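Annex B. Sample input.
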Amino acid sequence: MVPDMIQQAWNEREGAVVLTTVDELGIPNSIYATCVGLSEDKRIVIADNYFFKTKKNIEKNNKITVLFITKGGKSYQVKGEAEYHTSGELFDFMKSWNPSKHPGHGALVVNTAEVYSGKERLL
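Annex B, continued. Sample output.
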């Protein structure tokens, strides 16, 4: 769950988010994700439309980071653990906004542990 101040920043984000996962050897993999949302319980949800390494990584190591920037140019980094849903409430939430031209294989959900803006730790 992201704190209220991050929810406001999330609502003002611009462009894609950067999603970073790590494989079992500690090698990072980053992708741009454009099909994203904030669930009712304030968790970041990312549509798995074309994951490959990302999905393999979270199956082995669920540590995850999401980086985004606001229209005002302020950056935020959300660190946590990933859950992957192929059914249920969060999957249905993702399907409600994911464009129909994309497959939406699953919903990657971020359980927030830490939040940073620059070097400042906010949570």
